[in-house]
Design goal:
β2 and β3 (about 40-45) form a beta hairpin. The protein has 5 helices and 6 strands. A 3-stranded antiparallel beta sheet has the order 1-3-2, covered by helices on one side. The chain has a 3-stranded antiparallel beta sheet with strand order 4-5-6, with no helix packed on it. It has helices spanning about 15-20, 60-80, 120-130, 135-150, 155-170, and strands at about 5-10, 30-35, 40-45, 50, 95, 105-110. α2 (about 60-80) runs antiparallel to α3 (about 120-130), α2 (about 60-80) packs antiparallel against α5 and α3 (about 120-130) packs antiparallel against α4. It has one domain (about 50-170). The N and C termini lie far apart (about 40 Å). With about 170 residues, it is α+β, with helices and mostly antiparallel strands.
């Protein structure tokens, strides 16, 4: 079984988050164990049956669906008392079953965000990192996502992504 290990110091994780993560109450995160020693944490993840997503191998449709599903996941983690501001959202931390970007296949590695960056900024930065700036359509999409998300209305961004994904889906059929 493959394991991924990370450690960090200078951070105090609330006990309830530790329990939610280690007991796997929130299914949006990769199963993990946490060892705390003084001011240090060791995180050990077990991404059994999962692999890291490779955005460079994804279509624009898949990238936009991924971004949309990450928003849904952030709402679910919030329902489990883990706000999106409390963890990093980076392409390297997104895992999936079989490279699928549907909601049931996606999992995140939980790693604390000590800066507590707002979710709307995280999703814009995430989109900037996965959308290829050398492809006009993807570059324009990154700019559009930024313009819709930065005012802070995530519901507006969800609607924009839903419409765009549906349009792309229809053009593929």
């Amino acid at each position: 079984m493959q394991r991924i290990n990370q450690s960090m110091t200078g951070y105090k994780m609330p006990a309830y988050i530790e329990e939610i993560l280690t007991e796997n109450y929130c299914k949006n995160f990769v199963r993990m164990s946490i060892v705390r020693e003084g001011g240090s944490y060791s995180f050990s993840y077990r991404p059994t049956g999962l692999s890291r997503l490779d955005p460079s191998a994804m279509t624009l449709y898949d990238k936009l669906l991924l971004i949309r599903n990450l928003i849904s996941m952030s709402e679910n983690t919030s329902d489990h008392l883990i706000e999106a501001e409390s963890y990093l959202l980076e392409p390297e931390l997104v895992y999936a079953k079989g490279g699928n970007v549907d909601l049931d296949s996606l999992k995140l590695l939980y790693y604390p965000d000590v800066k507590k960056l707002g979710f709307r900024y995280k999703i814009v930065l995430f989109a900037d990192r996965i959308l290829n700036k050398n492809v006009r359509e993807e570059r324009e999409m990154a700019e559009r996502i930024r313009s819709v998300a930065e005012p802070g209305d995530i519901n507006r961004l969800k609607m924009f992504l839903d419409k765009t994904v549906l349009r792309l889906e229809n053009s593929m059929n």
